[in-house]
Amino acid sequence: MNGALSTYSFSDVVGSIHCGLMEDYVFTGKGVGSITISKSTERTTHDIAADGSVMVSKVPGNNGTVTIEVQQTSPLNKWLNGWFQKLWNSPTSKWASTTILIRNGHLGNTHVCVGVSPSKEPDTPYQSQGGRVTWQLMCADIVNNPI
Question: What CATH architecture is 10-146?
Answer without folding.
Answer: Roll (2.30)
